[in-house]
Amino acid sequence: MFRINDNYTKLPASYLFSEVARRVNAYQEAHPEVEIIRMGIGDVTRPLCKAVIDALHKAVDDEADSATFHGYGPEQGYDFLTGKIAEYDYQRRGIDISPDEIFISDGAKSDTGNIGDILAVTNRIAVTDPVYPVYIDTNVMGGRGGELLPDGRWSNIEYLPCTSENGFVPALPKEIPDVIYLCYPNNPTGTTLTRDELKKWVDYCRTYGSLLLFDAAYEAYIREDDVPHSIYEIEGAKEVAIEFRSYSKTAGFTGIRLGYTVVPKALLGRDSEGDEVALNPLWRRRQTTKFNGASYLTQRGAEALYTEEGQSQVKETIDYYLENARILRDGLAAVGYEVVGGVNSPYIWIKTPGTMTSWEFFDYLLDRYHIVGTPGSGFGPSGEGYFRLTAFNTRENTLRAIERLAGEGKNI
Ligand code: MLT
């Protein structure tokens, strides 16, 4: 009889956001009259901007004519898009990244999950805690998690707590990990690291030979000057870091899917003989084998973002979400909640009142105010006692949510 991958049976039965959706659906079924405001999963609500829509329409027409029809594309992405990314996202910021270091994909979730394919199963992983659950779950699936301990930690993973006690700034690892995941602006806390703070991580990785997996999915929300948009703004990062980017939160592509990963040619790992091996060709080999490329249509849509109209239309949408974030942040603070995030990020991270656990607060908000958020404990042990709201909603619903919460303050 065939055997399954036992690692899957070690995981909690469902993925965090599936569990939240299950509970919300059950509540809605039991209370059909209630109008729920959904601020749980970070899914955008604004339509794609006009520049993208026009480009998508044109790309559809291309597919209708044998002279311009596109079948399989290059697995790592079309030159018309990788060239624009290299220029706009990197070279214009003074970063020397070339198109053949960029790999287009169907999103950062897939890439942050799949990157483990090119890394040894023996690597020791470190994550900030709370953390985007994909980093942990995919390492458990790949056999790097060890055992789930009663305190919710995995025995082979090093957790770097980020709580109000340390201002949400993780300390450098105590044991030297082989691979470190950082996500800034951070999901779920919405906090950022300054240039000097990020430099410590790059220097650490250079000193100890660790690989830095830097998730910059929320880069477009950065508004403060001292917050780097790319890890490659830090000197020496190209020799230690892979960067993940997403068009989901940047341009509303959560439904049509697109992202990219930068694997610099200067980034070297070691094989089991101790010899140096470049990661760029390994990732290319992985992608060309397991991935047939993102669609021509979607890539044409993304290309339109790198135009004057595209850039300004996208900025307008992000400004809209950031204003929602400000309303949530200020509104919650005004009624006495401790909040961080929401300045360079669409996420607001709230301390739950009193001794309420994250899931108790989830039930409380859902039942009393009909507001859905994500329990902090779902993002890791240090997320217990916290709760995440997203700014991805209409202005109307954002204001309504604050009115509902402010009506009674936090006297619960
Ligand atoms: C989130 O809510 O954390 C994100 O939407 C999840 C994701 O990007 O996959």
The SS-based structural class is alpha/beta
**End-to-end separation:** 55 Å
Count of individual helical segments:
13
Q: Based on DSSP secondary structure assignment, what is the total number of beta strands?
A: 15
Helical amount: 25-40%
Shape: globular
Beta fraction of the residues?
A: 5-15%
Spatial strand arrangement across the major sheet: 2-8-7-6-5-3-4
| Average of the residue pLDDT scores | 96
What hetero molecules are in the model?
D-malate
* Major β-sheet annotation: 7 strands, mixed
Low-confidence stretches: none
Radius of gyration: 21 Å
Structural commentary:
With 412 residues, the protein is of the alpha/beta class. Helices cover 37% and strands 14% of the residues. It is built from 13 helices and 15 strands. The strands form four sheets. It has a seven-stranded mixed beta sheet with strand order 2-8-7-6-5-3-4, with helices on both faces. Helix 3 packs antiparallel against helix 10 (296-303) and helix 11 runs parallel beside helix 13. It is globular and about 55 Å long. The model has no long low-confidence stretch (mean pLDDT 96). D-malate is lined by residues 41-43, 109, 132, 187, 248.
Q: What's the arrangement of secondary structure elements?
A:
Blueprint lengths: L6 H4 L5 H15 L6 E2 L11 H13 L16 H12 L11 E4 L2 H7 L10 E5 L3 H9 L15 E5 L17 E5 L11 H14 L2 E5 L25 E6 L1 H4 L7 E4 L5 E3 L5 E3 H12 L5 H8 L4 H27 L4 E3 L5 E5 L6 H12 L1 E2 L1 E2 L10 E5 L4 H14 L4
Parallel strand pairs: 1-13, 3-4, 3-5, 5-6, 6-7
Antiparallel strand pairs: 2-8, 7-8, 9-10, 11-12, 12-15, 14-15
This protein binds D-malate.
